[in-house]
Structure formats: structure tokens, C-alpha cells
Amino acid sequence: MSATSNTTSRLPQVLEEARACTICAANLPHGPRPVLQADARARILIVGQAPGSKVHASGVPFDDASGERLRQWMGISPEQFYDPQLVAILPMGFCYPGTGPSGDLAPRGECALQWRTKLLQAMPRIELTLVIGQYAMAWHIGKARRLQAQAM
């Protein structure tokens, strides 16, 4: 078995563990409810901030007005969008962080540190990553820039 197939074969186990995660439960006013979608065959990755209150309630990623807008911009149907073999959805924080004085709080940092690398390594077929929001940009684009600078 190749290293890639070994990594991708672990995805179901990693997803199960991530969906059961309670690492930051003490800091979540509405409790943990990780919301994500992934499959090793996915070609598109959508990286948002964290689920909002409506998504927390439904357990379905982008199950709100922002999701409708995103699907329109992408030109794909809800069936395509919610097919994990086509589209992976890994927000920076998997749980709703609650609200603060100026809207939803920032995604919890523990989530990305615990799960991001494990999940991304198990999805080697990603060809397009849509990065939405400052925390997602800092992780994905900022990290890429640092790696490019190190290579020079």
C-alpha cells in the first residue's frame, strides 16, 4: 500500500474522531457540534471560518444565506455542493463559537491545530481551495507564503 492510500484510508477514522471532538467544549456556549464534510476523492475544498448558529442547529455546513450565495457564485447545485466526493468543507473551527459584541466570535484555534493537517493530508486530490475569511486566509495563504519564502 502506498503512503498516499494509507493516509486516505485513515480519513474515515479521522473524520469520526473530529466529529466526536470536545477539545474546546468548556469554551463553547452552545456546546460542541462539529460540522464538516470530507472525502478522500474530493477535488474542491471550501475553507470558511466557523459554523454560525443556524448551521450549529442543523448540523449541515453552509445551511444558511451565505451557503446559498456561495453555491450561486460557484454555479453548482445543492446536490453537488453537499456531495463529499466532490466538495470537502473544512471550516477553521468546526463548532459554533458563540456571539460577541460585534457578531460571531472567532473560530477556536484548538480545532485547526488538532485536525487541519490530519484531514488535509488524507485528501490528496484537492485541486481547488476556496478560502473564505481572515482566519482561513491567515492559515492557508499565510502558511503558503511562509513556505515559499523558506524555499527561496
Notes on the structure:
- The chain is built from 7 helices and 5 strands.
- The strands form 2 sheets. It has a 3-stranded parallel beta sheet, covered by helices on one side. Strands 3-4 form a two-stranded antiparallel ribbon.
- Helices cover 44% and strands 10% of the residues.
- With 152 residues, it is mainly α.
- The mean pLDDT is 89.
- The protein has one domain: 3-Layer(aba) Sandwich (Uracil-DNA Glycosylase, subunit E), CATH 3.40.470.10.
- The relative contact order is 0.21.
Give a short account of the largest sheet: 3 strands, parallel
Structural category = mainly alpha
Output the helix-strand order: HHEHHHEEEHEH
- How many beta-strand elements? 5
Report the portion of residues in β strands.
5-15%
Describe the global form.
globular
Q: Share of helix among residues?
A: 40-55%
What is the fourth-level CATH superfamily?
A: Uracil-DNA glycosylase-like domain
From the 3D structure, determine the CATH topology: Uracil-DNA Glycosylase, subunit E
* Count of helical regions: 7
Instruction: Determine and state the CATH class.
Output: Alpha Beta
Outline the low-pLDDT stretches: none
- Supply Rg: 15 Å
Mean pLDDT: 89
Record the strand order, biggest sheet. 2-1-5
Named CATH architecture:
3-Layer(aba) Sandwich
